[in-house]
Amino acid sequence: MDNLVKEVLNINSLSKEILSELHKEEPSFADIQNMMSKRQVMIDSFGEELKFKKNPKIADKTNALLKTHLDEFLEINENIKEVISRVLNRNRSDLNTAKKQRKAEESYTFFS
Length: 112
Hints:
Distance between the termini: 74 Å
Number of strands: 0
Low-confidence stretches: none
Shape: rod-shaped
Number of helices: 3
Strand content: under 5%
Helix content: over 70%
Largest sheet: none
């Protein structure tokens, strides 16, 4: 079961890297995409391993530790979703501003 705890810690570590990249002024979406793909593979692997290691005699300490790290994963994951949503909204806003500016410039050129 300790291996499961290590896997969750690795997933959380990669999730924190994703969150860190998202907080950058100019995040690398290629890097984020690669990290998200890698994270999904790790999550799938963890799920498969968890299926095979279900054991009613899991030590309470290990079970509590696993729960703590899974709760942390859920919190980090929620933060990632929120940041992605903000970045997406900001990019939409920037795109709309650029479109309006281009139209204004085209209109100005047309009337000049």
